Fold each of these.
Amino acid sequence: MVSRLKHLEPVLAGREWLTENFSIADIAMADILRLVNRFGGLAQHPACRDYVTRATARSSFAKAYADQMAHFGAADAA
């Protein structure tokens, strides 16, 4: 994981999103990095932390996350 973060850090330091515009790729990556950050894994990667903050603040991320949790909740209830 650390080597991947070392490669990702300079990429995210140089741009706002993974591609030119915010996309599903950013939702997926931010969701993964959000979990890594929860356990302190982004402590040495400020660009990755900033990226997570930007991405998770978007309404489309919040909707995708809520939809995913609702899907899991429905499966648990079944």
Note: Residues 2-77 form a domain with the Glutathione S-transferase Yfyf (Class Pi); Chain A, domain 2 fold (CATH 1.20.1050.10).
Amino acid sequence: MSAQATLTMTRQALRSRYEEDGFCVVPELFPADVVERAVQGMDAIRRGEYDTGTPPEESPWKPGDDPNVLCKIEMPHVASRGVRELVTHPALGKLIADLTGASKVWVWWVQLLYKPPGGKPGTSVGWHQDKQYWHAFSPDSELLTCWVALSDVTEQSGPVRFLRGSHRWGLKNIGDFFHQDIEAQKAAVPIPPGETWDEVAAIIPRGGCSVHHMLTYHGSGPNLSNAPRRSFAIHLRTERSRPADNVSELTLEQGRDLIKYLDDPFYNPLVYGKDE
């Protein structure tokens, strides 16, 4: 069997897993040199250095803030050439097209996530569904997230934990990204009749990724290892997406501004397919 045929079979298996579980893990996706330049770009952004001349969006964490809490920086790919190289890498767009059958794939938002080591307070990510923050898109839009590991993610380093099959539960609008007691928070997540809490930790080597549906519940605990957990959450959309009809009525908390760059290829690059 040829290497291409083997890859095709693997992608078919990944698509089945994504559709059935609401997420899948891809152990290898990005070349080592691309990952290394993205790591360097991440560190530069955290120092407030932007080699593109464009700063990231206003963010919960800014250079000079407490290094012992979760660092979350919005739209880092506009501030660093190394980060942008990873975010726009053709392997990413091809993967998303293979998983969804899409003819076009865009990156529409990116988040830098740096979780310091040592299990410090303030470094967990509470259970949530991404779509609860994305009301600016129509309910039937096809939106998903690629979570890229820039360091080896082990059980000790605070991996993303997914609820298998929760993408079929519908939008609950219950959850909180910034909630710190993720064990206590479980009681608030509504489990539909006949469903169970099936929690899976995404163990991913450096350069790999996970991809999850916009309705899949996920969260993560503190990083108990002795090294930082580095990642990017790359939010993507296909041609089967559009702004919500009531965008002008939404609040910032509901994601009103998240679609402000849809027509700007610098912020929202096309990563698979061709423009008309």
Note: The CA atoms of residues 119 and 224 lie 4 Å apart.
